[in-house]
Amino acid sequence: MAVKIRLKRMGKKRQPSYRIVVVEAASKRDGKTIDEIGHFNPLSEPEEIQLDIEAALEWLRRGAQPTPAARRLLSRMGVMKAFHEERFGRGAPEATAETPQAEEPGEEG
Prior knowledge:
This protein is α+β, with helices and mostly antiparallel strands. It has a single domain (3-90), classed as CATH 3.30.1320.10. It has four helices and five strands; from the N terminus they run ββββαβααα. The chain has helices at 53-61, 68-76, 79-88, 95-98, and strands at residues 3-12, 15-24, 35-41, 48-51, 65-66. A five-stranded mixed beta sheet has the order 4-3-2-1-5. β3 and β4 form a beta hairpin. α1 (53-61) packs across α3. It starts with a strand and ends in an 11-residue tail after the last helix.
């Protein structure tokens, strides 16, 4: 079963708000959800994003794939960065920090 993290539209005409939900990939946009992990209101000033970060990380660990819109919201909240660091480590050490810089042949003091 492929699982997606995506937005489910709520609200009235011309007044959208969205729930950030985990659903089976084949389900409809507003169909049955597996889990609700947050909500997003684009009309408030500033935009309101409420997200259960631990639940989002747990679903990403299980293999849920976020849609592009959901990925942008997860990135704003720092979830994608935390997931990347958890999965791949804090990043490779920079080569310039570990190896000494060689002097240029023409530059002598």
